[in-house]
Amino acid sequence: MLKKILLGLAVIIAIPFVAALFIQSDYSVTRSVTINKPVSEVFDYVKQLKNQDNFSKWAQMDPDMVKTYRGTDATVGFVSAWASENPDVGVGEQEIIAIDEGKRVDFELRFIAPFEATEPAFMTTEALQTNQTKVDWGFTGHLNYPMNLMFLFVDFETMIGADLQQGLDTLKVILEKE
To answer: Which sequence spans correspond to the domains of the chain?
Structure first.
């Protein structure tokens, strides 16, 4: 009888680990907004990493967050770092790794605490009309096995997408006021 109970427990414990073998481990999220300003004006604003402090939901979650910067903003190699005791913010840094002037800025996000991860992100601008610009903000991520099991319980794409969209909506308000 004890063998059957132990075998049953082993099967119950093994099921999630086997299931995780068949669950995605990557996710990708992109959100967009249309801003009634010329593409050059919008791009000049979004390529400056310090400006994310004005519109990013994450940058505004902790008013006591310590922020430091290295390098020249709006250039490849510029790093914006943050440290917060709020576990929803944590500790990390973001570096500009590529700029396609007027079109795209690529970032590398390096999360240090409460978890470690390095993930790519980007912002793109596209002229829709002379005074109208489409901005995309995207983020991709990866969860290693067996942590990818979390995809069954947490919809990262919806959760992160809502935060990106809130930031883009704030960006629109800021730029259209100017």
So the answer is: 2-177
Q: What is the pLDDT of residue 94?
A: 97
This prediction has a pTM of 0.84
Distance between CA atoms of 35 and 127, rounded to whole angstroms?
Answer: 10
**Candidate CATH numbers 3.80.30.20, 3.30.530.20, 3.40.50.40, 3.30.450.40; the one for domain 2-177:** 3.30.530.20
Identify the bridge partners of residue 92 per DSSP, sorted by sequence position.
82, 111
Give CA–CA dist 136/176, Å, rounded.
17
**Rg value, the chain, Cα:** 20
The continuous run of DSSP H or E covering 158 comes out as helix 156-177
The string over 43-55, giving b where at least 16 C-beta atoms fall within 10 Å of a residue's C-beta and e elsewhere, is: bebbbbbebbeeb
Both tokens of residue 56?
């990013």
pLDDT band at 150, cuts 50/70/90?
Answer: low
What is the spatial distance between Cα 109 and Cα 127, in angstroms, rounded to a whole number?
Answer: 27
**pLDDT band of 39, cuts 50, 70, 90:** very high
Sign of CA dihedral 102, 39, 41, 141: negative
- Tally of CB atoms within 10 A around 2: 6
Closest to 101 measured CA to CA, from 120, 84, 82, 76: 76
